[in-house]
Amino acid sequence: MVEEFNLLVCGVGGQGVLTLSRIIALSALKSNFKVRVGETLGMSQRGGIVNSFVRFGKNVLSPLFEKGMADAVIALDYVEAARSLQYASKRTVFLVDSNTIPPLSTILGLESLPDLDHVKRFFKENAVKAYFFNAFSIASSLSLPTSNTVMLGVFGRLFQKIFDRNVLISALREIVPAKYVEKNIEAFQLGWRLMDDNVAF
After folding, report:
1. How far is 4 from 101, CA to CA, in rounded Å?
2. Number of alpha helices (DSSP H) and beta strands (DSSP E) in the chain
3. Which of 44, 45, 46, 70 could form a disulfide with 14 if both were Cys (CB 3.0 to 4.6 A apart)?
C-alpha cells in the first residue's frame, strides 16, 4: 500500500488537464486509496494555466501539497512543465508532452516563450528526471484534440506497480464521454507503449 503519492497534472485550458486528473483520482479510489484533489485554475478559456493536485495513499488529508513535494508531474505542455519545477525534488519524475499552447502571458508580451531544447537543458541543469514525448501528434493521428489519455498511458506504464492497467481503463470509461471512449483507449495503449523506448534526461 502506498503511504502517500503526490501528483501534479499541469497544462493550460483546452488540454484536458482536469479530465486526466479525474481519471487518475478515480483510479486511485478504485484501488482502495484515500484520495484528495485540489485544482488551481487560471482563465478557464483556452490558454489559461491549469494545475490539478492529486494526492492518494493510506492517510491523505489535504488536497494540496507544498513545493518540493511532488512524486510525479504530468505536464501536457512543456512550458508549464518548466513552470512546475518548483514542486520537484530529486525523487520527482516529470512526464512531459513536448508541445505547447502559448499561455496568455506570452500572447500579451509579458513573458517570452522558451523553446523545447531550452526547457530540456533546464531540467538537465537542475538534475530532475524528465521524459519527453510527442504525445499530441499521437492524439492528433487519432483525431483527438488533446494528448491527455496518451499521457495517461505513459503514467500508467511507469507506475504500473501502483495502478492496474485495467483499473485505469475502467476509470477512463467512466470519465470520458461514451462516443469518445474507444479512441481514448487506443490513445492510452499507444501512450503505454511509448515508455518502452524512452530514456529520461
Report:
1. 32
2. 8, 6
3. 46
pLDDT above 80 (res 147): yes
Query: Which top CATH class is 4-197?
Result: alpha beta
Q: DSSP H helical segments within 10-161, as ranges?
A: 17-30, 78-83, 104-107, 116-125, 135-141, 148-158
Bridging pattern class, strands 129-133 and 93-97? parallel
User: How far is it, in rounded angstroms, from Cα 69 to Cα 43?
Assistant: 26
Q: Which of 76, 85, 80, 72 is nearest to 114 (CA)?
A: 80
> Domain extents for the chain?
4-197
The stretch 82-101 carries a mean pLDDT of: 94
* Cell numbers at 182, concatenated: 474507444
Which residue has 499530441 as its cell numbers?
136
Q: Distance between CA 118 and CA 18 in Å, rounded?
A: 27
Q: Which residue has the cell 488536497?
A: 63
Q: What share of the chain is helix, strand, coil (3-state, %, to 5)?
A: 45, 20, 35
- Whether the CB-CB separation of 94 and 88 falls below 8 Å is answered with yes
pLDDT of 159 over the 60 cut: yes
Q: How sure is the predictor about 67, in pLDDT bands with cuts at 50, 70 and 90? A: very high
Of the candidates 124, 155, 150, 133, which has an alpha carbon nearest to the alpha carbon of residue 7? 155
Other Cβ atoms closer than 10 A to 70: 23
Please determine, for residue 137, whether its predicted confidence score (pLDDT) is greater than 90. yes
Per the document, the length of the chain is 201
